[in-house]
Amino acid sequence: MLSSFHTTPQGDLTLELHGAFNADACTSMNQRFENICHQYAGHNVVVDMNDVDALDASGIGALVFMFKRLRASGGALYLCGVKGAPRKLLEMLHVHRAIPMYEDKTAMVGETGIVGVAA
After folding, report:
1. Cys-Cys crosslink for 108: which of 46, 81, 90, 102, Cβ 3.0 to 4.6 Å?
2. What global pTM score does this model have?
3. Are β-strands 2-7 and 76-80 bridged in parallel, bridged antiparallel, or unpaired?
4. 25 burial via Cβ count (<10 Å: 0-12, 13-18, 19+)
């Protein structure tokens, strides 16, 4: 599920997720998500979902959890590369109204001005 991460010189984080972002994946990643929210409090966290092919309520719950925790600490969560069924589900549930969603990293960098995000 989580295949790689990259920290920018500004202290922001890019997470690259792959495969299914579902209950099984979230169960094994809960502690890591908690650590990310603590370690990157006050910073931007970009979740690259370009290679996510399945998303369920647990995956959405994990995204909302990170969004709320990061926002409470003065940070922000951004989604990029979401496509197909995961994108349709996030839009249907109006998650994109709370968590900014971009076509790709280039579009996100252009609109937000976040620098150093791995392309």
Report:
1. 102
2. 0.91
3. unpaired
4. buried
